[in-house]
Design goal:
This protein is an alpha/beta fold. It is built from 15 helices and 15 strands.
């Protein structure tokens, strides 16, 4: 079976046919780094992390680019409020992004370009668009002519007239058409700026991604992805200016994921339900957050609530417990070849997982297959005689599909019994010397590792949660 994906451009599910055999060039719009990322951002990065992992598993060589927008109006406002430079604000929140992304198991992109490091290429691209007649300058502003390409609106599936009728931007003396969008804008006094043929200024948002995609992936790419809120105008404008610039199709496939709702309401600052990921990770395991973000098909809306994250935590524990039980049994199981029925069961699970993920990266169905594997593994361990190679085969299956592809087992190193006992002994010693801070620290460490302690008159008892 081949990989199929829903292409927003055609509104159809299509077989993946790459520009070069077994190579995927993929660009994902990254965050504007003026604040910590919220749960909607995290869905984007976790989902496309899995898409990348799965395509790699299926034999594709994936070149993955995810940018940082590190200059815009919001960043300038934050810099002014906090007495920092725009670059310092960017450095702070890029570091914060990587901290959260690493904890969520999101692998680093091959390239993470920053807008402020690509200004020379952006200016050169804007100049080319002006020379081609696709853009024009007015009082230090450079605008792209939306009507330069007759197929403007092909991604959002609206005609130029429909888009113009719904345009929120009023016609000004500077703009020829309300749909025209800015490629370069003049700097206001005190703002960060770069020299350009049109005076000191900075780039518009849309041109940045076009230039970074072209620089690191080429004129045409295989997959461009991001949240559905970026479809118009950002991605629509990327297509227009990129194709006007190169004369070639910009991206073969466009993937857009659905919104994240909070308690069945749209997430917004005005409603006070804006959830920052770093705050969630103070309360819940990172992998439980990752699990919840993968628990619905990527094109569908995802609801986020405390009840649902707690359900995700319990569901993830079931997977982890199955793996833990297999690891324990591996040491005592008999040495023997893998049983035929185990091989058959694992082959069936693999086929089901492929069917789920080949069908537009359906992580929800992929997780369902993982739970089928949990059930089968638990049945295996209830047998009167268990063979080591069969246990190892299940462990390998979980490591690949639940771990390497879905990323739900990463960082889950099981503490050995002797390590638990050693920490308990250290805690007892700390209590005897009245170092209660260290004793509490060890209890918290063990709890984070899934170990529950019970202090009894006979001593400390412990169990795996």
């Amino acid at each position: 079976m081949t990989v199929k994906l829903f292409n927003t451009l055609t509104r159809k599910k299509e077989e993946l046919k790459t520009l070069e055999p077994q190579k995927v060039r993929m660009y994902v719009c990254g965050p504007t780094v003026y604040n910590h990322i919220h749960i909607g951002n995290a869905r984007v990065f976790v989902l496309y992390d899995v898409v990348r992992r799965y395509l790699t598993y299926r034999g594709y060589s994936v070149t993955y680019v995810q940018n940082f927008t590190d200059v815009d109006d919001k960043m300038i406002r934050v810099a002014n409020e906090e007495g920092l430079t725009v670059l310092e604000v960017g450095d702070r929140y890029i570091a914060a992004y990587f901290d959260v992304a690493d904890r969520l198991g999101v692998h680093r992109a091959d390239v993470h370009p920053r807008v402020t490091e690509e200004i020379e290429e952006i200016i050169a691209s804007v100049q080319q668009l002006v020379r081609k007649g696709a853009a024009y300058e007015r009082d230090g502003n450079v605008y792209y002519r939306a009507r330069h390409k007759a197929d403007y609106g092909k991604l959002s599936h609206q005609s130029l007239d429909e888009l113009r009728a719904g345009a929120r931007v009023a016609v000004t003396e500077k703009k020829e058409d309300p749909l025209d969008f800015v490629l370069w804008k003049p700097a206001k006094p005190g703002e960060i700026a770069w020299d350009s043929p049109w005076g000191k200024g900075r780039p518009g948002w849309h041109i940045e991604c076009s230039v970074m995609s072209r620089k690191y992936l080429g004129d045409s790419i295989d997959i461009h992805a991001g949240g559905s809120d970026l479809m118009f105008p950002h991605h629509e404008n990327e297509i227009a200016q990129s194709e006007a610039l190169t004369g070639k199709p910009f991206a073969s496939y466009w993937l857009h994921n659905g919104f994240v709702n909070i308690d069945n309401e749209k997430m917004s600052k005005s409603l006070g339900n804006f959830v920052l990921v770093k705050n969630m990770l103070d309360e819940y395991p990172a992998l439980a957050v990752r699990y919840l973000l993968l628990s619905a098909h990527y094109r569908q809306p995802l609801n986020f609530s405390r009840d649902l994250i707690e359900q995700a935590e319990h569901a993830l524990e079931r997977i982890q417990h199955a793996v833990t039980n297999l690891q324990h049994r591996l040491e005592t199981a008999r040495a023997e070849k893998v049983e035929a029925d185990v091989t058959e069961a694992l082959e069936g699970l693999t086929e089901q997982f492929h069917a789920a993920m080949d069908d537009d990266f359906n992580t929800a169905n992929g997780i369902a297959v993982v739970f089928e594997a949990v059930r089968a593994a638990n049945e295996l361990l209830r047998r009167p005689v268990v063979y080591r190679e069969s246990v190892a085969a299940y462990l390998d299956w979980f490591a690949l599909y639940a771990g390497d592809i879905l990323g739900l087992l990463e960082g889950e190193e099981l503490l050995l019994d002797e390590q638990v006992e050693a920490l308990i002994a250290e805690r007892d010693a700390a209590r005897k010397r009245r170092d209660f801070a260290r004793a509490d620290e060890i209890r918290d460490q063990l709890s984070a590792e899934g170990i529950a302690l019970e202090d009894t008159p006979q001593g400390v008892r412990w169990r795996r949660k």
